[in-house]
Structure formats: C-alpha cells, structure tokens
Amino acid sequence: MQQIDTSEVRRWDRHGRRHVVRVGRTGGRRTLSCDTCGWRRGAQFLPWLKAEEHLAGAHQATVDPAAPGAAQRATPAEG
Q1: pTM across the whole model
Q2: What DSSP character marks residue 45?
C-alpha cells in the first residue's frame, strides 16, 4: 500500500489574501495543486520551490507567514 503525504506552501499577497499550494506525495511522485486557481503540476525535483514560484508569479503572493515580521508586511500601509 502506498503512503500519501501532504504539505503546503502558504504565502500572502500585498492585499492580505492567503494563497496555498499543496504538495502531495504518493510514493516517489509529487503533485502540486493551487487552492486559489486550481493550477496543477507534477514535480520530481524541488516541489516547494516550484510552489513558491507559482504563488509569486500567478498571485503576487510573496509574504512568508513564517518569516519574522511577516504580519507587519502583510498589512497594507496607512497613509
């Protein structure tokens, strides 16, 4: 029986919207799928980097929630 593992890459855009690409693994095969737009792709190497590239290119979502100070950068500036 094959084991299925799933992780996700989360980023926020400059408007504070959350975007997620899920990285699924079945055996040695990895599949990427975007919750926002439905984009899907197989990835043999560096799936998390490809997920980040999709989020930045398709959704302009570059704010990493795990990075220090991410909450301040995700909030639009007043003024």
Answers
A1: 0.77
A2: S
